[in-house]
Design goal:
mainly alpha, 64% helix, globular
Length: 103
């Protein structure tokens, strides 16, 4: 998934998502990042809304934040549906991940 993301966005944006996820990681008890570490970062950023709210986009320095969610909904559905690691349980219950996996 990371390769495709970088092709659409760029390496810097991928690193910004990874950094944002790592920053939020200390709040969570589970250390299970699953088999795809970049997908883990995406899941953490979805759960913490890092690229969906301007204030968080600015805080994390994420370029093209408004384009990430539509791209993930269009291209990432299968990756996200098959994710095998930890995700933010409150975000899961609140439905934050739903639109990324529903057809």
């Amino acid at each position: 998934m990371r390769k495709e993301f970088v092709e659409e966005f760029d390496e810097e944006t991928a690193v910004k998502l990874e950094d944002a996820a790592t920053e939020h990681w200390s709040m969570h008890l589970s250390k299970d990042k699953g088999s795809d570490k970049f997908l883990w970062a995406v899941m953490m950023c979805i759960g913490h809304e890092c690229f969906t709210h301007d204030i968080f986009v600015e805080y994390h320095g994420i370029k093209r934040g408004e384009d990430i969610k539509p791209w993930l909904i269009k291209h990432g559905r299968e990756w996200i549906a098959g994710y095998d690691g930890y995700c933010d349980s409150l975000a899961l219950v609140a439905g934050f991940y739903d639109e990324y996996v529903k057809e």
